[in-house]
Design a protein that fits this description.
It is a single chain. With 494 residues, the protein is mainly α. It is built from 23 helices and four strands. It has helices at residues 14-25, 27-41, 53-56, 60-84, 94-102, 123-131, 144-147, 162-168, 189-206, 209-215, 225-232, 239-254, 258-269, 281-292, 351-364, 379-393, 395-403, 408-417, 426-439, 443-455, 457-460, 466-472, 481-490; strands spanning 89-91, 255-257, 310-312, 323-325. It has a two-stranded antiparallel ribbon. Helix 12 packs across helix 14. The chain is globular. The N and C termini lie far apart (62 Å). The mean pLDDT is 87.
Amino acid sequence: MASLQRPEIKLESLKEDIKEFFKISGWEKKLQNAVYSELSVFPLPSHPAAPPEHLKEPLVYMRKAQGSWEKRILKSLNSMCTELSIPLARKRPVGEQKELLNKWNEMGTDEPDLSLFRPVYAPKDFLEVLINLRNPNYENGDSLSFRTHLGLIQVPLKVKDIPELKEFFVELGLTTGQLGIDDSTQVPPELFENEHVRIGQKVLAEQDSAAAQQYIRQGSPTALRAELWALILNISSQPEDILYYEQLKTNVIQHDLLVDSLIYKDVKLTASNDDYYFVFEDYLYQVLLCFSRDPSVLGHFAYNSASPPKSYIRGKLGLEEYAVFYPPNGVIPFHGFSMYVAPLCFLYHEPSKLYQIFREMYVRFFFRLHSISSHPSGIVSLCLLFETLLQTYLPQLFYHLREIGAQPLRISFKWMVRAFSGYLATDQLLLLWDRILGYNSLEILAVLAAAVFAFRAVNLMEVTSLAAAEAVLADLSTLKVMPLLQIFLFATVT
C-alpha cells in the first residue's frame, strides 16, 4: 500500500500501473496459473437453478449407487473395529510418540502384526458393484442401440468413438514427434528429442501452466518431468507448504488411526513386493499417513460424487454437532491405493514436495478411479469406453472372450483402477501419466487397455478360459505404451 502513496503514482493511470507491477513482479503469471489450475479442476458452471448435489453428480441413480457403496465400505470398516476391538482413533502414549519420531525415516523396518487386518475392499469388489449399476429409466429396454452393448457395464453413458478420440488426442498422431517412440520415420529421434528438450526448458523459464500442459502431450524429457508436472499442477514449495506438511507429520506422531494399519498392510502387499518400488517403502508410509490426516483434501468432495464418511463421538451417534470426518481427509484407502504414490517417488525426493504433488494428482484425477459417477474420466465411463472400443473395433476377439466366460473388463479393470501403476515399467508409466496431465483426462487409460488387447489379439483368440486369457496378459512390463496407443488410435480402420 505504501507504494500507492508515492507521488509518481497517478489515479488516472492506476489500473495500468497495477497491471505493469503484476508483470514486472511475476505475479501476473502466478495469478494466471492459479486461475488455470482452478479451471482444470472444477466442472463448468451448471444451470443456476440446479441443486448443489448436481455439481457432485447430475444423475440421481449414480448418486444413490455411490451412497450405497459408501455405506458398504463403512460397514466393513466398523465391523473390523468391532472384531479386533480397536478404536478408530487414539492418542499415542508419549513413549510410542518418541519411538515413531525416531524411526520416521525408516518405518519400512517396522514389522507390526497385520495378519488380522484386511483391505476394506479390493478392485474386484468394486467391479461387481459397477456391473450391477442400472439406469431405472432404461429398465424396459427403451434404447435399442444400448441393448446391443454386450459388455458388463449396462448404463447408457456417452463415450467417445475412435474418430472422436483421434480428434481429442490429435497430438499423438503418427506424424507428430513423440517421446517414447524410437523409430519415428519423419525425424531422427535424437533430433526431435534435442529440440523438444530445448522447448521444454523455454516453457519452464516462462513458468506458464497452460503452455506446460500443451507441451507435455508429446511426452516429457526425463530431466524436466518433475518440474513440468509441478508447474502443471501449480505447485511451488513455499515455506508455508513445508510447515503444513510438518504439522501433518506431528498429527501422525500424536494420533494413531485404524486406517494407518490399512495403509501399512497395503504397502506391504503391493509396493514392498514390486521390483521398481520396494525401495520407496518409507516414503510411501510418510506420504500416505500424512495424507490421511489432511483436511484440505475434503475440498475435492465439492465436485466428487462421493461424500466423506463421518464418525460420531462415543454415545452421540446421529448428533451432527458431535460428528467428525473419518479419516480427517475423508478417504478410506483400498487394496492398491499406495500405487498411486509409488511412481511419483522416482521424481520427487523431498517429502513435502512429493506429498503436495500426490495430493494434487489425487484431487484432480485419482479419486475418479474409485467413485461411481457419470464423469467422462470416471471409472464407469472408462469401463464403458474400453468395452465399446473392443466390441466395435475387435468384435471377433470380444465375442470369443465373452463366449468362453473371459469378459475382457474382468482382466483390464485392475489396470485402469490403478492407472496402470505396478503393471507397466516405470519409464512407460510416466510417459502415460504425462498424457493424463497433458490432456487433463483419464480416458487414455481405457484406450491403452483396449490397445493391449489388440496387441495380444492373436494369442487371445486361441485361449479357452478366463485363466488362460489372464495368463496371456499377466505381464505388461515389456510393453511400449506410445507405439501401442498410436497404432490403435491412428492405424485402426474406422
